[in-house]
Amino acid sequence: MGYWLKHIKKLHANGLCPIDICMGSARKQQKIAEREEGLLTQAHELVDQVGFAGLTIDKLVKTATCSKGTIYNHFSSKEDLISALSIRSLNIVIDLFDKAIQFPGNARERALSVIFAYQLYSQLEPTLFMCVMSAKTPAVMEKTSPERLSIMQEKELQLTAVCDQLFESGINEGSLKSEIRTVADLTFAMWALSFGSNALLMNAKAAQGIDRLDQKNALLSNANLMFDGMQWQPLAQDFDYQKTWQRLEVFFAEYIELLPV
Amino acid sequence: MGYWLKHIKKLHANGLCPIDICMGSARKQQKIAEREEGLLTQAHELVDQVGFAGLTIDKLVKTATCSKGTIYNHFSSKEDLISALSIRSLNIVIDLFDKAIQFPGNARERALSVIFAYQLYSQLEPTLFMCVMSAKTPAVMEKTSPERLSIMQEKELQLTAVCDQLFESGINEGSLKSEIRTVADLTFAMWALSFGSNALLMNAKAAQGIDRLDQKNALLSNANLMFDGMQWQPLAQDFDYQKTWQRLEVFFAEYIELLPV
DNA sequence: CGTCAATTTTGACTAATCGTCATTTTAGTA
DNA sequence: TACTAAAATGACGATTAGTCAAAATTGACG
Questions:
Q1: φ, ψ (nearest 5 deg) of residue A255
Q2: Is the Cβ pair A225, B189 closer than 8 Å?
Q3: Per residue in B163-174, pLDDT tens?
Q4: How far is the CA of A24 from the C1' of C2 (A)?
């Protein structure tokens, strides 16, 4: 692999602008970074067209303006490409979370906002959501480059940090007791519930097995169960979180408009 | 594909004995069914040896006593084989759940028993657990035969039925109110939490990212949060579920012995 | 501006793997 | 034993992943 690519691709996946690092070949690096973005976009479109099973590097080469060898300069394998898409996916979630925590309301409402954002993302970008599911699969992980694996881990840390922050603000606010469980435990619970709910919903949608569920409110319902279990004030019986959920639809209106009908 | 195989493999995957259906070629069918079991076992071992990414049909042929064509009579693709392993996996879970609901205790304790069993299984059979994760992945689903897909769906229904039953017995027992949420909603919440927790734990173990968590008690902790949120009596503050968790280790002792140290 | 070394791109090539199917073998039946 | 339906075989064609020697590009420097 080329000298610069080794560095650039990691920098870029992190969202850094390589120009800052070395002025010498700034333009070249920029071009390379842009190409990687383009390749990822094309790969995304390709998956939408032919499915994950139908994704091949040769097909990607056909749509791309560069050659196969160059693609392999960016991604060490097909699975590495999936992981790169997963990282792009995580970046989107991070952006959404950044917006979510700015929702005006008490700490528990802001936590709900994050859960709302996560569901929103899973519906806005089903393919990318599937990418992060796939990237958690051993067959993909085993063939993902170590650099990308560690980037993914770092991104996930960023996401859990947001949750940590929420619970801490709940504790500071006085609405949440910190005696029984650590913040890390609470974050794990919230994360597991969100991930599990969205994964199952996504899958159930494909299998037509969720007639028994009110999908739109499943996440709100689950979140209320969990936060009530944490004794996070105000409890669902004392507060209209349904209304919060509706306010969230307004708060995220610009994204909701993009949802497929 | 051979005439009988078409029927047999579905019957067998369902756990039915083909002998019941037609006496004519009973022995032949039995042999075919046994071979499928053998192939699955060998595939499982192969994955343990070379990883999911290294699993190939050719390697399976080498360890098997039959030819490639015969393997393709059983499994329409490599992905179909993964799904077949996933079904085997689900059968194990079903057996464990059958035992779990016999745990002596109140309804909430029995629900805890099911969650315990699920975690036990994810630790006892990490490879098979990964199979069901992989089988939920689009790349695998897209290449799985429709017959097997519907079997998987059916198996999952069986599992949710166990949860439904638990919540209903809680309602009958009087420890759980049924006004706010349907049993289906509660089952979904419990299922999402269990699946999400185990999936994340499994992944985190690989990524060494759970130093911040007491892994052994994470599931108990999460379950308590959720069941408390359901107002399922007795609440965690009024009952020593830690003790129940320990009793469960005794109840499942024969399986726990098998856990890797 | 031309030269040169360092870097990147290219796509033909190899190796590996999937999945098929014409042929052979087996099992059951009369 | 002869006959037939079903199943097993493995050589084969097709597809795909991933490589690498050679060509092209870049940018630095005299």
A1: -80, -40
A2: yes
A3: 999 999 999 999
A4: 22
